[in-house]
Every structure is written in C-alpha cells, then in structure tokens.
Amino acid sequence: MATANVTKTDYYELLGVAKTASDQELKTAYRKLAMQHHPDRNPNNPEAEAKFKECSEAYSVLSDAEKRAAYDRYGHAAFQGAGGGGPFQGGFQGGFQGDMGDIFGDIFGEMFNMGGQRKASRVQRGRDLRYDLSLEFEQAVFGTEKEITIRRAEVCEDCRGSGAARGKQPAACPQCKGSGQMRFQQGFFSVARTCPQCNGTGTLVTDPCKTCSGQTTVEREHKLLVKVPAGVEQDTRIRYSGEGEAGRFGGPSGDLYVVLSVKKHKFFERDGDDLHCVMPISFPQAALGTELMIETLEGPETIRVPEGVQSGREFRLRGKGVPHLNERGKGDLVVEIRVATPTKLTRQQRELMKQLSETMVIDNEPHSRGLFGKMKDMFS
C-alpha cells in the first residue's frame, strides 16, 4: 500500500522572510502572522489554528541560533525521527515544549497577558467629577467667582486608605497566592487572567476598617471657589486637577470638571465674541435720520442714523462686545436697524400718509437684490 508523502512548507517561506533575515525581522514577521491567525481571533476555524501552530513552530526553530543552523543545513530532516540523519533525531524538540510564554510575552505584551508572573498594581486613580454651574449672561461676559459644594470620595483618615482596621494590614489573596493573576492552560500555551477574588490586587482585607467598611474612602462635602474668566460661553469646561475623587491604594485623585451653562440675554445674542441686537425705528426716523440711544453691557451709547437708512442696515460699535477669552481685546456690538411698519393709524396719521403717498411715487416692479439698495436714491 502506497504512503502519501507530505511536504512541509519551508519555515522561511511560512514567515515570509529571506534566509538572511535578522532576529528582529523574524520577530516582526511572526508577530504579524500570529496576530492574524491566533485562535482567539479566529474561533472555530481549524485552518487558522493550524496556520498559527505552523508559524509558531517555524519561529521557535528560526529564533534559536543552534536550531536555525541545523535547519539551514539539513532542512526539516534535522527534526525528523530516528534514521533521519539530522542532529535533532528523536522527533521535534522545538518551541512547543519550551517556554512559549516568553515568546508571546515579548511579542504580544498585554494583549495575551502571557508575560511573566506580573502582579497587577493595586494603585487606582480616582474618578473624575462633573459639576454644572449656571451663569447669568453678564457673568459669562465679564467673569465672576462662585463657591460651589461637591460630594466626593476622600481617603479614609482612620485606615489611611488601606481599607483594613487600625493596626491591621491586608492579607495575601489565598486564591492567587498574592500574584493577582490566575493561569490557565489552553492547548499548548497558558493564559494569565485577573484573579476574580482580589480583582488583581493580590491582597484581601480580612478585618475591614469600621469607618469606610474596607472601601478605603469615605464620602464628604467639599467647598471650592470657582474662578470664571471673562469671555466664557455655553458648555465651557474648567478643569481643576486633583479635585475629583480620591484614588485608592495611593493612587492619584481624579479631576473636577466645572461645565458652564449661560442664561440667555433679553435682547443680545452672541456670535463668537460679537454681540448682536435689533433696533426698531419708525418710517419717519428712517427717512429723516435720527440719533438712537442703545444700552450696551457697559453703559449707554449713541448711534447716529443717517437719513434714508434702509431696513437691515447694520451699525458696528467697536470693542463693545465680549472680551476675548484669556486674551486682550473685545468683540463688537452689531446693531441691525429695522423699519417698523405701523399696524394701526389714527385718522390724522392716515390723512398725512395719503398726502405723502401722492408725492412719493415708487416703481412697484421686482428688482434684483443688488438693486434694492439703490432705492435710497429715490428719496434724495
């Protein structure tokens, strides 16, 4: 009965490198292929698992100087059984019986958690906090100071953040023996996972502090003076480093973010650092010109309106807007003129309007928007 000959793929060809490849080139090529074909990324895919094992076998041989030299001289025969003639007779003694954890730990790092027995750090950063602060329109423009009160977790003074009763210390976790990790065998390599009993800290509080119940922190009220700079706007965030909740086991505190909400003004609207408002005037004021008094955020200002002004004309008051945040200078105040048409007239006003209309003839035909401004000349 004939026996089929199965030809193994060349190790260099498997990894996609030249025979002169350096150790770093081998490692880079293997890392790319291992991530592509790893069983965790290809569940229920026997072809990917087989490819992963082939690549791992190839890297295990070529990453060892002695085995690589034998492979370069004898090929796969160097690792065949008795009678193969190679220096590694007795079967393949490559990397699957070696420390694959070193290979994966070096290449993948935290991805597979397969490095040495690294103990998880107990240090935990405190949570960030948010406080919503409401401001009047003028307070956002000119800046202000406000005292706020927040509730936050602070380090327990009785146990000094250890979680254990006074005079006691946390004990080593009995499940992971203080390592913070549990190792499991999956196929030909092992995987380290966070210990579920101690959550990776490696310790357990057997005699908890009565003040914080072993939580290491207690909740307290804290007062803080918030300094709002001039020129802030809606949803501006002010960050106070370290004013959030306390960290655990010596970890740093989180941050506090004060988020500003600005109330609307009764007639000013903000566009960047400019302020906008609308000023209504009568038809006679528009035709004859006038002076208008407008209240700005810094006091009254006078606007001189020329005769024949058209509805929609804008007047810009330089430097009467919002201060530039953290910079010198201010925006402008833009006042839009709108001619108000009366909805009710007295008998005398109606007669006057009739007399005016008889002396003022307008061509009531449509014009382009560009020509509309030239209608001013008809009243000159």
Rg (CA only): 40 Å
* CATH architecture annotation name of the largest domain: Sandwich
Helical run tally: 9
Main β-sheet, spatial strand arrangement? 10-11-15-14
- Mean pLDDT, to the nearest integer, reads 82
- The CATH topology of the largest domain corresponds to HSP40/DNAj peptide-binding domain
Total strands: the figure is 15
Distance between the termini: 117 Å
CATH class of the largest domain: Mainly Beta
User: CATH homologous superfamily of the largest domain?
Assistant: Urease metallochaperone UreE, N-terminal domain
Integer count of domains: 3
Report on this model:
This protein is an alpha+beta fold and 380 residues long. The chain folds into three domains: 101 residues, Orthogonal Bundle (Helix Hairpins); 93 residues, Sandwich (HSP40/DNAj peptide-binding domain); 111 residues, Urease metallochaperone UreE, N-terminal domain (HSP40/DNAj peptide-binding domain), CATH 2.60.260. It contains nine helices and 15 strands. The strands form six sheets. A four-stranded mixed β-sheet has the order 10-11-15-14. Helix 2 packs antiparallel against helix 3. The radius of gyration is 40 Å and the shape is elongated. The N terminus and C terminus are likely disordered.
Question: What's the arrangement of secondary structure elements?
Answer:
Elements: H1 11-15, H2 23-37, H3 46-62, H4 65-74, H5 100-108, E1 129-135, H6 137-142, E2 144-155, E3 171-172, E4 181-186, E5 189-194, E6 203-204, E7 217-228, E8 237-240, E9 256-262, E10 269-271, E11 274-281, H7 283-288, E12 290-296, E13 299-305, E14 314-317, E15 333-339, H8 347-359, H9 369-372
Parallel strand pairs: 1-9, 11-15
Antiparallel strand pairs: 2-7, 3-6, 4-5, 8-9, 10-11, 12-13, 14-15
